[in-house]
Amino acid sequence: MAQVTSPPDPVKVVDDTTTARRRYSSDAAGLGRLRAGAFVAPALALIAVFLVFPALWVIYLGLMNYRLTGLAAADPQFVGLDNFLQAITDPNFWDSTWLTFQFVLGSAVIGQVVLGFTIAWMLRDWRGPLKRIVEGLVILAWILPSAVVSFLWVALLDRDSGTLNALLGIEGFAWLLDHPMLSIIIFNTWRGTAFSMMLYGAALGNVPPSHLESARLAGASGWQQLRDVVFPHIRGHILTNLLLISLWTFNDFSPFLLTAGGPDGKSEVLAVHVYKTALQSGDLGYGAAISTVILLINLVVAVFYLRLLRSKK
Amino acid sequence: MTRFVAGRIGFYTLIAVLLAFFTIPLLWLATAPFTSDPTYEVRVPDFTFENFQMIIDHPYALWSLVNSLVLSIGTALLVVVLSALAAYALSRVRLPGRDALLYALLLLSSIITGTAAMVPLFQLAIELNLIDSHTGLILILSGGLLPAAIFMIKDFMDSTPKSYEESARVFGASPLQIVAHVVVPLVRPGLATIAVWTVANVWGNFLMPYLLLSDVEKQPAAVIMYTLYTEGGQANLKVLSTFGLLYSIPVVLMYLFVSKKYGFRFHGGIKR
Fold first, then answer.
1. I need a surface site. Which of A22, A37, A188, A201 has the fewest CB within 10 A?
2. Which of B28, B123, B143 comes nearest A155 by C-beta?
3. What is the pTM of this model?
């Protein structure tokens, strides 16, 4: 009978052929695991030596009294948690942490997010040259080399002949000396707004126009539309944006190019603090301990971010 | 009606303020290089090209741009080749622990920044005798950029059809031939993206060359730019402004090229 000679379970056979094809087609070039491993190995080797190893070594260094020069350079001793204890009892470390907090909160969380969203929101229905000019200038501030833009701000804020003082009609106001934190916060807002602007620009494109339309018809004000229609739609984008720019700003070294942490450490954020203690004063062990703290903070933010990405998928 | 007009006026005022905020700091870079006696103040230039002559005569300026080019191209080549090979293998072959590896790579590249790793990298460079070596710096920069590059290029690999590779295999091509002649042409836009992204990253990077290159003849433009305005009394604004402009132009050209050709795309968002 036909049924007996036919394959016992047609559904299963179909299944088998598709999985077989999938397995075959997924390794279409016939690499095999060995050659695939050989393809991955060089990249992994570089990452292991120059990225993973330094991250592990920084923890080890933090437990030693390594110095750049002198006796401790030749024969470093294991000092356990001394460097970490020294850090948490050192007012300079806490000052620096507080300044970093101000820097991240002021320039990233408030400055870049608010400005980036405002620009994206204002330009959302625009087409044409004016939109391209505004966006182009914001992006220009983001893509130019940091050494160049830092000097542009040094020129802008110069005490005697800077453009800002000329525009404001005040003379001899030393922005970088009298208000170093404010200066680097405004600078970094200017520097980094482009990313938030582009992200929110893309996010606002996903808000269904019909929802906005019906909110408008129901008599919602501009702010109510934002609060009730737009924000619920782009909540994921806002969180992504906040985590990424906080991470970048936290690790940003460009304040060094503008104020070098001065005057008197008044703008010495942690990134600059590590450089100064470890590589200028030569206290590598103590610098490594602070680096470990930075790594841990990065880890917390990054894990949070990756969980967010996963939950979205 | 008056409310509408007031709203419009407010809107355009805000746009004007924003435009001013983003334009004013840049004006100096556009005017000072063409001014015969530039100061910190922005002035209407008299369109001289003398300052460019000073750059040619400067002992380190042009060489530092060459150094930047060497570092950028070297890193881009290494990153493109290694990330393409790795991403291809990871995209097509189910290696054990692949997903965990990719997750770890993404995590590592976002937490181990130049700031967090400057102390051990400096030590490592001393131990391996890589101070003042372009090769050493290229290896270190590549190590930092590779995880994100693998991630980005794997996206391109995943979305290319596999049927071409199958037919090439039927005709007896070896795996390496297939990668070189079939896969690479298919993912060329992805490779170009990685190359441009790497060049932009290395071209602007200040911290790593500042730490690891002390020989002024080997330093790239980022470090020379910083040296020009911090060292030795009164900064020479003719050299500084002109050099800043020359150093910036390639970045702007690259951006225009990328946004024209591919549109500006978002990738995971990793920037070091």
1. A22
2. B28
3. 0.85
> Does a cis peptide bond (omega within 30 degrees of 0) precede residue A263?
yes
Across all residues in chain B, what is the average pLDDT? 86
Q: Contacts of residue B252 in chain A, CB cutoff 8 Å?
A: 140, 143-144
Residue for token pair 């505004």? A134
HEC profile of B200-233: HHHHHCCHHHHHHCCCCCCCCHHHHHHHHHHCCC
Phi, psi of A260 (to 5 degrees): 55, 30
What gap in Å lies between CA B81 and CA B216, rounded to an integer? 30
Sole residue written with tokens 């590059």: B149
Instruction: Give the residue carrying structure tokens 């509408």.
Output: B4
ipTM summary value: 0.86
Give tens-digit pLDDT for A121-135. Answer: 988 888 888 888 898
Distance from the B216 Cα atom to the nearest Cα atom in chain A, whole angstroms: 16
Q: Averaged over B105-132, what is the pLDDT?
A: 88
- A vs B: CB pairs below 8 A: 283
Q: What angle do CA B78, B84, B90 make, to 5 degrees?
A: 130
pLDDT (mean) for A72-82: 74
Contact call for A43 and B247, based on CB within 8 A: no
Q: Give me A204's structure tokens.
A: 């606002």
Which residues in chain A are closer than 8 Å to B22, comparing Cβ atoms? 134, 137-138, 140-141, 190
Three-class DSSP labels, chain B: CHHHHHHHHHHHHHHHHHHHHHHHHHHHHHHHHHCCCCCCCCCCCCCCCHHHHHHHHCCCHHHHHHHHHHHHHHHHHHHHHHHHHHHHHHHHCCCCCHHHHHHHHHHHHHHCCHHHHHHHHHHHHHHCCCCCCHHHHHHHHHHHHHHHHHHHHHHHHHCCCCHHHHHHHHCCCCHHHHHHHHHHHHCHHHHHHHHHHHHHHHHHCCHHHHHHCCCCCCCCHHHHHHHHHHCCCCCCHHHHHHHHHHHHHHHHHHHHHHHHHCCCCCCCCCCC
Residue A62 has pLDDT above 90, yes or no: no
Q: What is the pLDDT of residues B176-207, one digit of tens each?
A: 888 888 888 888 888 888 898 899 899 999 99
CA distance, residue B53 to nearest chain A CA (Å): 20
Distance from CA of residue A163 to its chain's centroid? Answer: 30
Count of C-beta atoms within a 10 Å radius of residue A288 = 26
For B245, the closest chain A residue by CA position comes to A148
